Amino acid sequence: MIADNLLQILKELPQGVRLVAVSKFHPNEAIEEAYRAGQRIFGESKVQEMGTKHDSLPKDIEWHFIGHLQTNKVKYIVPYVSLIHGIDSYRLLEEVNKHAVKAGRTVNCLLQLHIAQEETKFGFSFQECRDMLDEGQWKSLDHVRVCGLMGMASNTDRTEQVRKEFRSLADFFHEAKDKWFADMPCFKELSMGMTHDYHEAIAAGSTLVRIGTRIFGERQY
Ligand SMILES: *Cc1c(COP(=O)(O)O)cnc(C)c1O
């Protein structure tokens, strides 16, 4: 069933849109089933859970960290993580860089923007992000690679609101690309869209959709 769900989604994705299979709270067996169906990118939101899964599952899996990352836990994921979606402060980016130097690797990151109406979600405001990018200090962090932006839309049935939020992030992506990343081909990812809103996200220009429930079923918390 997991394999069927996965293949159905993959059939719907246009060229240039990749799938992050969000496996948080699901056991290794579920991930293995998706793996056998060809999926290699998995998303997790807890540092320890991702570590345990990384240790026990095939080494060619690309682990994406999609949760809220605390600075004191950065060191546990830096050695192997393939993309960190939720960079929401300069301090966190600096911390990732520090541990990346120690680990002898360059870590791919996305800047998270707060586009939803809910206060509970994380991320830079557009202005905070502009200020950080303008300030320029981030350019000296040579063991992190800023590959694009990430955002979560409001959790609402009002599709127009969701579309508006995704478009605002896509607009900001183009602004950032032109202003700060024009000479950086690695800045190309726009991570947006989950089970209930990935069609709207793709229409607005998403390149990475993060889908859990539609593949693995409801999570047991
Ligand atoms: C859990 C989670 C998802 C996946 O949500 P589904 O509704 O199960 O598809 C996507 N992105 C983030 C940041 C998440 O925490």
Give an overview in words.
By secondary structure, the protein is of the alpha/beta class. It contains 9 helices and 8 strands. It has helices at 2-12, 28-36, 47-56, 74-77, 90-103, 126-135, 159-180, 198-203, 213-216, and strands at 18-22, 41-44, 62-65, 83-87, 107-113, 144-151, 189-191, 208-211. It has an 8-stranded parallel sheet. Helix 5 links the parallel strand 4 and strand 5. Bound molecules: pyridoxal-5'-phosphate. Residues 22, 24, 45, 66-67, 152, 194-195, 210-214 line the site of pyridoxal-5'-phosphate.
Short note summarizing the structure:
It is built from nine helices and eight strands.
Topology:
Elements: H1 2-12, E1 18-22, H2 28-36, E2 41-44, H3 47-56, E3 62-65, H4 74-77, E4 83-87, H5 90-103, E5 107-113, H6 126-135, E6 144-151, H7 159-180, E7 189-191, H8 198-203, E8 208-211, H9 213-216
Parallel strand pairs: 1-2, 1-8, 2-3, 3-4, 4-5, 5-6, 6-7
The protein binds pyridoxal-5'-phosphate.
